[in-house]
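#struct-pred
JK: can someone run the complex with calcium ion? inputs below
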Amino acid sequence: MQKSAIQFAIACIFLIEFSACKEKESPNNKNPNPKDSTITLELGSPVETRPTVTKYAPAFIGQTRVGSLKTKTPFQFQILNNNLKDPWGIAALPNGKLIITEQGGTMRTMTTDGVLSGNIANIPPVYYSGQGGLLGICVDPNFMSNRMLYWAFSESISGGSITSVAKGRLSENEDALESVSVIYRSNTPYNGNLHFGARIVMDNSGNLLISLGERSDANIRNQAQSVSSSLGKVIRITAEGQPAPNNPKFDGTGALEELYTMGHRNPQGLAIHPITGQIWLGEFGPKAGDEINLLNPGKNYGWPVITYGIEYSGQKVGQGIQQKENMEQPVYYWDPAISPSGMTFYKGNKIPEWQNNLFVGALGGTHIARLHVHNNKVLGEERLLVSEQQRFRDITQGSDGALYAITDAGRVYKIDKQ
Ligand SMILES: [Ca+2]
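RT: done, C-alpha cells with the ligand placed:
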C-alpha cells in the first residue's frame, strides 16, 4: 500500500475511534474535562503533505500525521511590535503586561498594545553564541505578592558553556531586577554553542522544571543516557535551586538528585496541562523525529538510543531503532521536522474549540501548530499563521486570554477572537 493511502486510512480510523469515544462521554463518564466532550472534532486529511524523510513506522495509530482540524470561531492576529532582537522567551505578568527575553542578554516588558520598555537592569552576563544566550522565562504564580522571575540562560565557565538558572525580583517600577542570584548551574560544561534546551516552568507545587539539551555533537550527546550528567535531561529544583523534594530516584552511579526525566535531545518546549497538571515537553529530533512527550517522572525518553529521526547525513542514528523496553514513546512526532520550540496550553474560553489544546511554535515549519489533546493523545492538528512565514520561537497566553507569540525576526503577534 502507498504511504499516503496508509495515512488516509489512519485518519479515517481516528474519526471513527473518536466518534465512538464521544458516544461514551455521558455525564456519568469520568471525563477529566467535561467541557472537552462538547467539542465536535471534524478531521480532514493530515496537514503534512510532504513525503516522510524516514521509512519508520509509528508505534501506535495517531502518533504522527493525525487528521487536520480547522478553527471555526473567527479569530484574528496582528503584529504588535517588530523591533525585538532575537526574542526567545515570552511570559505573562498578572498586571496584563508581557515579559520577553532577548537572546543577547536583555529582558523587557511589553504592554498588550505593543509598547516595549527599555532593558531591565541587573541581568547576569550570558554566553551569547549560536543557540545560547538569555533564554526561557518563567513568572512565579505568586508574582502578585513576591514579584519573582526565573530564567534560564547559557553561561560561559571554565571548560565550556553550560545551561544555568537565575532568579530575581522585578522592581516595582519594572526597570530592574533585585536580589538576583544564579540558583543552578549544569554540572557538564562543553565547548559548543548548540542544544542548551533552557525552557523553564514552575509546577503546581512551586518547584521549577527546566529542560537541558544534550549539546548536539556525537561525542557528547550520549550523556543524555547518563544519570550523572545534567545534559539531555529535565531537572526539577526548588526556587532556591536545590533538588526538589520527592524527585524520582534514578538508578546508577552518581545519579543527580535534580533529575526528573532523561533521554532528551534538545527540548525547547515545556507546558503544564491546565487540567491534569502534567508536564508536556517538545523537543527537536535530528533530521525528522521532532517529538511531543508527556513527562512521567523517572522515565527515560530514549535519545539517542531510540528516535524517529535520522542523522543530517542521512545515516541512521545508533542502531536505527524506534522502540526499546524501558524507554518512553513520544505522544506525537513529526516527520519531516517542523522544529518545535516554545509551547503553551490554551486556557481561555473565547475560542471554545481551542480549550486545553497545545499550541507549539514551529521554527523551520514557520507556523504555529495547534494540537487537540484528549486523554493524553493528540487527536487533531492545525497549522496557524502559515501565511506569516515566521520562525515562531515561543508562545504564551496573556492575562487577557489572548495568545502572544514571538518570532526570530523580532515580531510579537497577538492572536485572539475576532
Ligand atoms: Ca524520545
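RT: quick notes.
The chain has one domain: 3-417.
Residues 3-417 form a domain with the Neuraminidase fold (CATH 2.120.10.30).
JK: thanks, will look after standup
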